[in-house]
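Give me structure tokens for this 159-residue protein.
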Amino acid sequence: MKRSWNPAVWFGFLLALIGVISYPILFARFPATRDVPWANWVIVVLALAMIAVGVARAFRQPDRYRGKIAGSILAALALVVAGLFGYGTTVMTKQIPASQGAPRVGDLAPDFTLPDSHNNAITLSALVDSPFVPNGSSTAGSGTEKTAGTVLIFYRGYW
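Here you go.
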């Protein structure tokens, strides 16, 4: 009986490569799949499952399917690729270098001007020096105003 090729091993290895290569090309563009590449992990896990089925088939039915040696080599390569991808997306992406010029807790923020939600220029010093008037209140100018508090939030990471 003629032995046939084992497509699960080869398609699984191809799917593993697609799962890893598609991350920087496609999935890194979107925040939902950039920060935690769950879609790529699903693709890689499916690929490893296909390879496992193909290798098991080659060893259980060697008279019917080829691929003991090639399947084992491709399985090892796919595991290495999946391991490096997993290490790179879980450990290496968290290795952000320390920022040299970032303000520390308690530092005074430099004065700056940014547009607000209505595209009006707002200066930090104007916000800090302005009186605090709650919404719906008409107590402005009564002499009991408190200085408005300003909260600055700094996001660090990928933009």
